[in-house]
Amino acid sequence: MDSEIRDFIFFTESDKITNEKLYNLWRTTKSTERINIICEYILKSWKVDSISNLEKRNLKNQISFFSIKLKQARRSHAYFVRKYANWLKLVFERKYFSEEDLEASSSPVAGHPSKAFEECSFKVQKRKAKKLLEDKTPEEILLAAELAVRAEGKRGTANLFKELSNASPERATKIKKARISIENKVEPMQPERPRTKLLINGKFIESSSATWIPIRNPATNEVVSQCPETTPEERELAVAAAAEAFKSWEKTSVLFRQQIMFRLQQKIKENMKELAKSVTLENGKTLSDAEGSVMRGLQVVEHACSIASLMQGETSANIAKDMDTYSYRVPLGVCAGIAPFNFPAMIPLWMFPMALTTGNTFIMKPSEQDPGACMLLAQMAIDCGVPDGVLNVIHGTKPAVDFICTNPSIRAISFVGSDHVGQHIYELGCANGKRVQSNMGAKNHGVVLSDANKEMTLNQLVGAAFGAAGQRCMALSTAVFVGEAQKWIPDLVERAKKLKVNSGDQPGTDICPLINKAAKERCEKLIQSGINQGAKCILDGRGIKVPGYEKGNFVGPTILTNVTPSMECYHEEIFGPVLLVLNADTLDEATEIINKNRYGNGTAIFTNSGAAARRFTDRVDCGQIGINVPIPVPVPMFSFTGNRGSFRGDLNFYGKAGVQFYTQWKTVTSLWRAEDATDKTAQVSFPRMS
């Protein structure tokens, strides 16, 4: 701790409040509140209760820079906070000012050799810095560079050194060395990042958790916000709020719930671009892809707007003499959803709109890697009239997941994500008596016949394999070329080469970054595994560098041929921009390859033969099949029907199956006979249906 605050000396040895305590206070409070509390501690330690009293004391040798600034300000704490908040943060967070520098300064900048900052703004004043530094020594420029890196990272020094290095060869060499030294050793200053809220009982609150998960922009790996590991107490509060809200929510009319969905679908349309920007920032998708994914989620909301007809029951009158039987659907109670990182807006929209309109209350747990879009949707739902406690949002990793799977008040769980987690949720949830629908991994094959439309087929393969950097559960990650169609592979490579890899917010981007470094490393490892086992890499996207985004998690389009079903890269879901190519002599051989794979999410065939398409759809064992459609995700009036190793449970997402998942039947049999009012004899035999 001493080393961290060695250049920040406020007090003499006799002071009761130590620098260490003050530093700890700085680290554990926030923003303006942080400054206010520190000011109070400073005044308390100086045994004064106002700034005016400070002027009566001889502070020259007892306190340093900030006491002088307090005296000069001659105003309230609010003025001090407003004027020097950034400066105080700069000094606390970094260690490059000596006490002499501080005491010599009559303003936050004037006494410092570089004069690179004005009023300690966190943005480098580029033109002013250049002018001020032209006559400075390399040592002084080094200090300026340090300030620049702390404020803006390497871009800061790039701006400062752009023209200065042209002065003379000797000077240029010294400056270059200084720049390299600074960029390698100095960490950029990290301003405090926004914290993702919880939604509990209608209120957005900050978690009291001590564990905060950094949320990074995949294109830069910069931390853009933080997500809490929700505490056990907060999880319990969310469930309690949902359970209490269910008592009244289940009794609201289906038309009332339907009207909320009408308002929500309009709200989403109005805020489509804001949602897309959030997805791109935290997930990395291109803006167009992000907007498209929100649109697919919106379609489920629109489907929920017809819930009044979807909830209709069944009736049989006079099933026996004077006896009627009718069945109707009722909600389950408290339900929960666990969403993946790859569709941070679409998948929550698969879940909570159907759950709420069928009369349930809901606890949503978005991915801790990109919860921002889900929180925007939650705010929209509240704005559209969802009552307190009906929709709640918690955050976290395995502890939050296990809580959902084991809490006795939660009746059903919806999950989309990886195999390992999905199997765990299915087993643990079922063991605790819950209804579970678990969409998991996939290895989707596209079968290419030689009679297919070549241009259309190649375009479809490239788009479905590499879009969203392959991070889709319905990505077409494997192509099986049948017979003469194998001659198309070189043309496929040429199309893939034309794809532009860049940050998702940049115009013209085709392939965005992967979600994190671990995903990138895993993708590259599986590519190498395929090569080691005999596959041929005819297009290698590893090691790609995107100018301006050198720290991004980028992998370019990659194509492996000579792949066999025994290879690790084939039987594992890569979840990256990698297309595996297999060859088959006949359609039946291609179908057999698909059926032997453990996954059954989706598949596609590209052909102009109706007979071949029909033979394929009859014999292939996958839940969703596209004919000249590479990603056959059904529209919401149908259901998402992945099967085999891609799904656990027996009721799928949205459509009729979605309504069935979130409801249960209640059947009433009634008997109204006039003679019952006068009959004196009890019937003890089994009733006859007559």
Structure in words:
It is a single chain. It contains 26 helices and 22 strands. Helix 1 runs antiparallel to helix 2 and helix 8 (138-152) runs antiparallel to helix 9 (154-161). It is globular and about 110 Å long. The chain has 690 residues and is of the alpha/beta class. Helix 25 links the parallel strand 18 and strand 19 (625-627).
Keywords:
6-stranded mixed beta sheet, 15% strand, 7-stranded mixed beta sheet, 690 residues, single chain, alpha/beta
In brief, what are we looking at here?
With 690 residues, this protein is an alpha/beta fold.
Radius of gyration: 32 Å
The overall pLDDT average reads 80
Q: What fraction of the residues are assigned to beta strands by DSSP?
A: 15-25%
Counting helices, strands and paired strands, the structural category is alpha/beta
Q: Main β-sheet, in a few words?
A: 7 strands, mixed
Low-confidence stretches: 1-21, 25-36, 45-133, 146-154, 185-190
Which helices and strands appear, and what pairs or packs with what?
Blueprint lengths: L18 H10 L2 H15 L5 H4 L10 H9 L3 H17 L5 H6 L21 H8 L4 H15 L1 H8 L7 H17 L12 E3 L2 E3 L6 E5 L6 E6 L3 H18 L4 H17 L1 H12 L3 H18 L2 H4 L3 E7 L2 E9 L2 E5 L7 H12 L3 E5 L6 H12 L7 E3 L4 H9 L3 E7 L2 H13 L3 E5 L5 E4 L5 H13 L11 E5 L6 H9 L19 H16 L3 E4 L18 E4 L6 H4 L6 E7 L2 H10 L2 E2 L2 E4 L3 H10 L5 E3 L15 E2 L2 E2 L6 H7 L1 E9 L19
Parallel strand pairs: 7-8, 7-10, 8-9, 10-11, 12-13, 12-18, 13-16, 15-16, 18-19
Antiparallel strand pairs: 1-2, 3-4, 5-6, 6-22, 11-21, 14-15, 17-20
Helix pairs in contact: 1-2, 2-5, 8-9, 8-10, 12-14, 13-14, 13-17, 14-16, 18-19, 20-21
